[in-house]
Each structure stands twice: as C-alpha cells, then as structure tokens.
Amino acid sequence: MCANMFGVLKSLFGKPFDGGKRMDHGGQQHQQQHPMEQQHQSYHQQHPAMMRLYEVQKEVQSLGPQVCTFSGLQHDRDYKRVERELTRLLLEVDKVDTEGKPELQGARKRAAQEVEGLLRYLEENATHPSRIAIEDLSNEARQLVDDRVVAPQRSGGVAEINDELVDALQEIILRLTQVKTEGRVPLRKARYRALTRLCAVQDVVEGRTQQQTLSLPLSGETNESVHRINQVMVKVCVARGQLVALLMGLSGRDSCAHLSRILTEMQVELDALDVSGNAAIRNYRKQVVEEINGLLKHLDLEGEGEDTRRYDLGQNNSIREIEAVRAHVSHLREGVLRHCMMGDLSFRPKAELQSLLTHLDQVDTAKNPCIREARRRAVVEVQAIITFLDLREALARRQPGPAEHPSHRSVWLVLGSLSDLQAQALGFDGKRVDKSYMMLEELLTKQLLALDAVDPQGDETTKMARKQAVKFAQNILNYLDMKTDEWEY
C-alpha cells in the first residue's frame, strides 16, 4: 500500500498542462486544449481551497513514512501522536470551502480518502492478529526472564540461569519465527525487533562466565590483583542481569547509555591493574574483559530494526544463498520424479545432494533465527529426496526369501506404498485446503494405521523395520506439513 500511497496525491489536485498537442503512450496525438479551458483549470489550481489542499498534501507526505514503518501498538506514544496528526489533517480537509465547485469537491474528497487510508493502515498494523501474537510472545518471554533472572537479582537472590531457561527462550524464539507478516513492513519490523532482543538475551544467558578463583601460590601484590578482578567479576554478573532487564523492557530507571558507562569504567579499572608478572592472572583479566565486551555489544539495540535491510531478509546474502540452493534442489527433485515415473532408477544425484547439504551447513546465519529456520527447511528438502532415493533403491534390491517372516513382509508392503506416497508429497505444490492435500494426508495416515496393526510376533527384525517405517511415514507427513505452512522470512 505504502509504495503507491504518496504519488497519488500529486494527481489529485488538477492535471498538468503542456500548452500544445500531447502524445500518449501509444504515440497518438491529442487535440490541444482550448485556451479558455486552460484558463479555467489554472484558476482552480490557484484557488485558495486548492492551495490549502496542497499544504495538507505536504503534511500527509511527511507523515506517510512514519505510518508505513510504525511497528508498535495502539497504546504507544508514537501511535497516538501520528493518529492525532492525521485526525487533525482530516479535520483541516473537511474545513476547506469548495464553494460548491465540482472540481474542488472532488479534490477535497480524494484528499480525505488519502488521509483516511493512512489512518486505516496505521490501525490495521497496530491491531493485526500477527502483531498481537508478536506482543503476546514478547510478554511470555518477558515474564519468563523476570521470574528467573531479574526478580531474584533485585531481591538479592541468585538468578536461575540454566539449560532449562535457555531451552524455554529457544522455544519462544522458534514460535516468533513462525508468525506470519504477510510482507507488511511494520509487522516484519516488529517481529525482527522482538527476535533480536530475545536472541541477545539468549546469547547473554548462554555466554555467562562463572566467577573464578585462581589456586596459585601468589604474592601479596598479585593476590590483591586477583581480589580486585574478582570484585569486577561480581559487578559484571550484576550488569548482566541489568542488561537482560533492559533488553526485555523490565528496567524502568536504567538506560543503555548508563550501563555502557558502568561497563566501560570496569574496563578502565581492569586496565589499570599491573599483572605483567603472571600469565595466569593476565588470562583471567582477559577473560573478564571479554565478558564485558560481550555485554557491550548488545547495548546498541536501541535503533535496531530501523534499517530496512535488517528485517527485510529477502535482501540478505545468506537468504539469497539458501534460495539458490533451494532452486537447485527443486531442479534435482523434478529430475528424480521424472525418471521414477519412467521406471528409470539410474538418475541418482546423491553426491550432488550431499554437497548441497555441506553447502547449507556452511551458510552464515549470524545467529538470526529466521535465517536458521530457512536453512533448516532447505536441509529438510534435501534430506527428503535422499531418503526417497534410498527407499527406492532398497525396494529395487529387495529379494525376499521363503523363510521371511509374514509380519516383516507386511512392513515392506507398507514401505512400498509409502514410497509412492512420498513421490506425491515431493511433487505436491498446493495448499492445505486442496482436496489433493487432504487425500494425500489421509492415505499417509492409513499407512500409519496399517503399520500399527502389524504384529511382530516377537520377531526383532520386524520390530526394527516397523519402527523405521513409522518414522519414515511421520517424516513424510512433517515434510508435507512444512511445504504447506506458508512460512516466510
């Protein structure tokens, strides 16, 4: 909407004049306007009502970019300010006296529609279900961090920083990456800002350094240095909690600038220590300095998300690299399916597919959860083709003997059906509401039920084969689900 929102107003307030014959895009000549008609239009352009609408247009154009990039909620201060300004402009447009002239009435109507469009766009994004979902997940993360880290430290206790907290944060981050933005800049921006802060908190929590004490025969002077480094390390632990509170919006008084000054003062204090005579003490100080630097790097998030290139991942080099791999995978998948339809099993680009997996493993995700998810999905696409080729080859090589257990034979029959269904899943290019999707999902579910009905009768080989077949069927269902979940960067 925003891409063509601002150019519209220029055409609302009168037409351009060329004073002679004009050429349209097809090269056809148009008759020159009559001088009286030109004078009539020029009169309306210079009319006080039209001049006032031009002034309103300039103000609307200045507010437009703010509307189109606003990523907050209705109760935010910026939302109320922009809404108030647009409402004022709407009243200004309504006050314009058109003197009953149709041309002026039309211009005023179109100007009002333009302002109303901005107001509507502002409200739609601030109240969009995806925006609410982003806020709900942010609040969930905020509560988690407050209960485990911030509140205990404020009360003089010890923060509960453990693997359970890290896993809980990771689960919320994954859910945030799944929020649909429909390509809307404000929603992308809101999701990106929430993700960067959560990932920063996760990084701070994962990168914590335990306070160390050196058990060395040290001189009194060196002991004093270790004591002072330990004191700084205690301050760093406190600063870590303050940083987490800042990132999650749980600190009402502190600011990033204030915490940055505190951390910088710690660095100065460490630099002033004379530890030249002991390598172990130097390493300890170096470790604490690195810890401080690790906290400082997260204090530049105040303006994070303002740069479109950061949250518009379509322009990200890693995403482009992943998309190039996916295009290659798509080409190989089409080739594999085409040869299988003809009964030709000679086309087996497994080495090429394995090299693509290696390529994906080397893609730099920069700890961006959306890029990580994009890479994971590309890996699943490659692995789906590899497992399809492996099963086809196993089915072609299979030579059952007369002593084969009946239950084992039943499992292989299901695997044969699953191979055909996986070919359909690989070639599926529709949506979940499609009849073909529902039919394919139902057939896969029936194969799972068929496997559940197989009685191994104590045969260990059959037990293992059935277990692998169930996993294979579930992987096909998961792959089909992934292909149709309309995920976006």
TrEMBL record:
Positions of transmembrane segments: none
Domain of life: Eukaryota
Protein name: BAG family molecular chaperone regulator 5
Region annotation Disordered: where it falls in the sequence: 17-36
InterPro entries from the UniProt entry: BAG_chaperone_regulator, BAG_dom_sf, BAG_domain
Xref: Pfam families: BAG
Gene Ontology annotations for the cellular component aspect, listed alphabetically: cytosol; membrane; nucleus
Record carries keyword Chaperone: yes
One MF annotation (Gene Ontology) recorded for this entry: adenyl-nucleotide exchange factor activity
A Gene Ontology biological process term: protein stabilization
Keyword Acetylation in annotation: no
Alphabetic keyword roster: Chaperone, Repeat
Taxonomic lineage: Eukaryota, Metazoa, Chordata, Craniata, Vertebrata
Species in which this protein is naturally found: Eleginops maclovinus
